[in-house]
Amino acid sequence: MKDFLFSTLNKFKNHIHYLEIRIEKKESVLISFQGKLLDNLTNLTNFGGCIRALYKGGWGFVSFNSLDNFEEKVLLAIRQAKIAGSSEVSFKETSPIDITVKAEIKKDPRTISLSEKKKLFEHYNSLLLSKSEKIKSTQVSYRDEIKTTYFINSLGVYVEQERLDVIGRFNVIASEGGIIKQAFESISSRESYDAVMNLDKVISETADRAIRQLGAKGVSGGSYTVVLDPRLTGVFIHEAFGHLSEGDNVYENEKMRQILTPGKQIAVSGLTVIDSSLVPNQPGTFLFDDEGVPGKKTVIIENGILKDKLHSRETAAKMSESVTGNGRALTTEFSPIPRMTNTYIDAGKVSFSEMISDIKEGIYAIRMLGGQTNGELFTFASGEAFMIRDGKIAEPVSDVTLSGNVFQTLKDIEAVGDDLTFSTGSCGKCGQNGLPVGVGGPHIRIKNALVGGM
């Protein structure tokens, strides 16, 4: 494959300002249950690729699932770029590199039979269904995927990169007296099938969360001191702020360009926000992005001060900033755009017990059930919540939604916990839905948070 790509690139690279070829080979297994029904049992091998050409600011893009008539596909991308091009080229270059990256696999899922994987997840599904008569439905799925990506461009970059993903997802719905509640759990690993083994306790706790919420009373709306658990912290910073820091979202929005000015204080002084593709064994971890740019640790906010944004080659050039290794594409059917990797609020110094100790009446919000963002405004529904009374966790409450302006909320964070934790995420943007990302953070405490019942 390497010789074929070099030969093709060398033949056409002088016809255009920039040319790249990306090819992916995948082996995957998918098993899913809907209630008692096994509704998917699939073993697939996929092949796909794409060509991008840049000429005078205009892009040509061709995707394919076969190498037949390959040179014609390259020429098509070049012709598209020349038709579209009408301005100056704006594109960040990086140093030449030639590297092969192998996945570090501890227990390869390919050594486990399909029947054994099915039996394990059938057991998990049965465990959920048998937990209580209040459990009415489940959605349980398993996926593993080995992907090899071959990337080459006219800047002298060749990257061959292997990636393993093992993912288990568990959704349970409980119902009683017309009240319906649900709970969700996701387990992932970039290095071992062992991650989905021995999950009985995790499965049981997932069902318990849904059942516990059936007896919770609705929360009274108002302004509270709210403590977010690490999972909800991670989702909050990803959804409410992370997307705003992506280069295309900043470049295309004049208001965001004014707000997100490097050196400007946009959060409390104790808050640091990071996006890093180098955190070990997380969904958004890689050494090179889908534009052949080395991954890195990007400090977006440091002690409340905006330091950086997340860029593809194109947005970095347009904004005269450095590339950050955030050019990502869901598959070869899409062009890379600025996307997060593993985004998190860094650990502080406050313990959880200390964080809640002086709260007379507040709310402890755990995980996220759903939500939406609109620019700098957000609304999130927590998956589970408890009242905090006189410095202690008290009764469960339901239908807790948190709303606000993200930039005001970043300034209303009163305490940052010492218990940084990562969890599995899946991101959607511009039709590229389901991109693996990591979300993380410690417990955080927010003053004057607007809380409403659903």
Overview of this protein structure:
The protein has 454 residues and is α+β, with helices and mostly antiparallel strands. The chain has 2 domains: 2-215, 2-Layer Sandwich (PmbA/TldD fold), CATH 3.30.2290; 218-453, no CATH class. The protein is built from 10 helices and 23 strands. Strands 1, 2, 3, 4, 5, 6 and 7 form a 7-stranded mixed sheet that branches. The N and C termini lie far apart (54 Å). The relative contact order is 0.13. The mean pLDDT is 96.
Low-confidence stretches: none
Give the overall pLDDT as a whole number. 96
Sheet bearing the most strands, described? 7 strands, mixed
Q: Characterize the quaternary organization of these chains.
A: single chain
Number of domains: 2
Structural class: alpha+beta
Give the proportion of residues in helices. 10-25%
Q: How many E-type strands?
A: 23
Using only C-alpha atoms, the radius of gyration works out to: 24 Å
Q: Count the helices. How many?
A: 10
How far apart are the first and last residues' alpha carbons, in Å?
54 Å
What characteristic shape results from the CA principal axes? globular
Instruction: Estimate what percentage of residues fall within beta strands.
Output: 35-45%
Write the layout of secondary structure elements.
Layout: H1 2-12, E1 18-34, E2 37-55, E3 58-64, H2 70-84, E4 97-101, H3 114-129, E5 135-153, E6 157-176, E7 179-189, H4 200-214, E8 217-218, E9 222-228, H5 230-242, H6 247-251, H7 254-259, E10 273-276, E11 297-302, E12 305-306, H8 313-318, E13 327-328, E14 337-338, E15 342-345, H9 352-356, E16 361-374, E17 377-389, E18 392-398, E19 400-405, H10 406-411, E20 413-416, E21 421-429, E22 432-441, E23 444-453
Parallel strand pairs: 4-6, 8-18, 9-16, 15-22
Antiparallel strand pairs: 1-2, 1-5, 2-3, 5-6, 6-7, 9-23, 10-11, 10-15, 11-12, 13-14, 16-17, 17-18, 17-19, 19-23, 20-23, 21-22
